[in-house]
Design brief:
With about 130 residues, the chain is an all-beta fold. The protein contains no helices and eight strands. The relative contact order is 0.19.
Length: about 130
């Protein structure tokens, strides 16, 4: 038991079952518990990089790149962009390349997302 309500766990890439129990330190009442599953896809967050960095003039081609999360292999990547006031569109379908290029033709702030998934996974992937 601890008085802290936080716990740091540096797990390997895997799916873990997690159970938390809490009890009143003074009353001695029976503890309450909660359980869930947590998936660690990596021990480092994925980072989306831009070259050149923002801001840039309209019609400048930028390179988007992301790193392979540590502890993972056989990943494929997809990139998406959303222009100012627009809708999301895929700018690169899933493949093994961690980079793509994009040229913005509208002035304003664009949003970008990169997804990665296991090459054998038929799902949508994760950000």
């Amino acid at each position: 038991w601890s008085l802290s309500n936080t716990f740091v766990f540096n797990g390997e890439v895997a799916n873990y079952g997690v159970k938390v129990e809490a009890k009143d330190a003074i009353s001695g009442a029976e503890p309450v518990s909660a359980e869930t599953n947590v998936s660690f896809l990596s021990d480092a967050p994925a980072i989306l990089k831009f070259e050149p960095e923002s801001p840039q003039p309209v019609n400048t081609t930028i390179k988007l790149s992301t790193g392979r999360p540590l502890g993972t292999s056989d990943l494929v990547y997809s990139f998406w962009a959303c222009p100012p006031g627009g809708t999301w569109r895929q700018i690169k379908p899933y493949n093994s390349f961690k980079t793509t290029s994009f040229t913005g033709d509208t002035s304003g702030t664009y949003q970008f997302e990169a997804y990665c998934k296991d090459i054998n996974d038929g799902g949508d992937g994760g950000t």
